[in-house]
Amino acid sequence: MRKLKQKNIYYLALFLVFISSLIGLGSWGLTETSESRYAQISKEMLQSDNYLQPKLLGINHLHKPPFTYYITTIGYKIFGVNEFGARFFLQVALLIQLILVFKIADLFFKNRRMALNTMLIYFSLPLVLISVRNLTTDAYLNTFILGSIYYWLKFTNRQEIKLYLYLFFVFLGLIMNTKGPVGLVFPILLILTQKQVLRIKFKISYHFILAFLLFLVISLFWMGLLYKEIPSLFNYFLDEQILKRIGTKSYNRTKPFWYFLVIFPIIIIPWFFIVFRGLKLNFLKGDEKAIKLFSLNILIILLLFSSFTTKLILYILPISLFVSLLCAKVLSISEEYFLKKYNLYLISLLGLILITISILPILDAKFSINYFKLLLIIIFCGVLILGTYKFIRFKTVKTTAISSIFGLGILLLSTLFFSNNNIQINSVKTILDYINNTPELKNKTIVVYDYLLPSASLYSGKDIVTINNGHNTTERDTRFEKENNWRKFIINAKSEDGIKRMDSIFKSDIILFSRKKHELPEKFRNYQNELPNKLDFDKWILYY
């Protein structure tokens, strides 16, 4: 039987990943609050043709540089303002990441088989898959971080080619335009550990200075264009979006120190035991420089981001590169019997997830699943696993290929699960579809009580009114507003003026969105009585 060549496995993997990532990409609604926020900002940017000042529900939203919004608006221009358009370039970013991971691993290992293994491992990490199924900055940021690392390694391998140095700094500039300085931590950390462990030397020449100046121009370009209109923007970024996120309990994202240490094994679950083995080897076998380099980066990233006050899973997304490199290295020195056992572990893990998804609707009637499509996914994964055993002869590639089938399975299962459970994944698309298709409701003004709901505006195509009664999402930063038009769409329930406006708006033709777990308090129940009709959508109750 003819076996697959490494090159064919590489192209087949990229093809299957990209096609699988596009299947059903627009079949579930935008999720609250992050994804719908990015999607709505991009929609407003496209409609207003104002690409300098991102706005969310008519209010300046300058929390991050605008690069993610630019990419999303391109998706909208090509595919329309919809979920597929919002998420399409995330899948392109995943494809680029896989290619970059392969090239980075090839530079480290000088071995195409190990590079292929690294790429397949990378794709199988749940942390990576999470980042490309939900519109945020993180997948794009990670792509630019990988690009910067790749060109830095190219430069240190061939220092006479200065173009690589300039491209390294260009990618650093793109990092700055995506999420600001925090993204620079990862390439800088690699440079420092690489210098310490591998004793890499490089000279600071005038090319360094010119490339650094190019980085500054790219990094500050957006802020420079806005300086005349918003001169305090730089200080705002430094104080509010960097220092406060690191050291204070801002944006309701405070987690205990141990958060990443506990969550880390889960978000790399197919490879946790290999990572643990690699970290153990680092301490027992200190002469293995590659293992030491990758282990150092993993440990420092975990400890550094654990020390920050605000924490989200995707903050440590770039750790995925070092996890993949470490695992590929450990696999290359593993015994055959260990690889066979690990193959069974990966297959069992996928089987366990498939069983869990299939019985979830039985355990909890809130969830639903399309069992025919689930059967197709099981058959697809089964055929690929059988093909792996039959057509791949390299032992380590067989293991990593099975892990990539795990990744494909998770990708397709997530699409199936999300599309069948919109409300459970915190999307209001089902609710807005119902409103838009009900003549009695579609022309009513949407009022949302104590929660920011950008997708209500995106799906209805109308301005919505938000009642702010203290929930963190409704606290809008209006310091950069020069006009008062935004006041029409936010009601402060704790002010006298706000109470007067509530008296008025509840007597008009509205539909009130209220979360079940945070309904109107007793003192506002008289307003609710103005709306005698009620619709129950599990997490949400609608009054009209």
UniProtKB/TrEMBL annotation:
Residues that span the membrane, as ranges: 9-30, 88-108, 120-153, 165-192, 204-227, 257-278, 290-306, 312-332, 344-363, 369-389, 401-419
Protein's membrane topology: Multi-pass membrane protein
Ranges in coiled-coil conformation: none
UniProt KW keywords: Cell membrane, Glycosyltransferase, Membrane, Transferase, Transmembrane, Transmembrane helix
GO biological process: lipopolysaccharide biosynthetic process; response to iron(III) ion
GO molecular function term, any single one: pentosyltransferase activity
Subcellular location: Cell membrane
Superkingdom, natural source: Bacteria
Chief location of this protein within or outside the cell: membrane
Name of the protein described by the UniProt record: Glycosyltransferase RgtA/B/C/D-like domain-containing protein
Organism: Urechidicola croceus
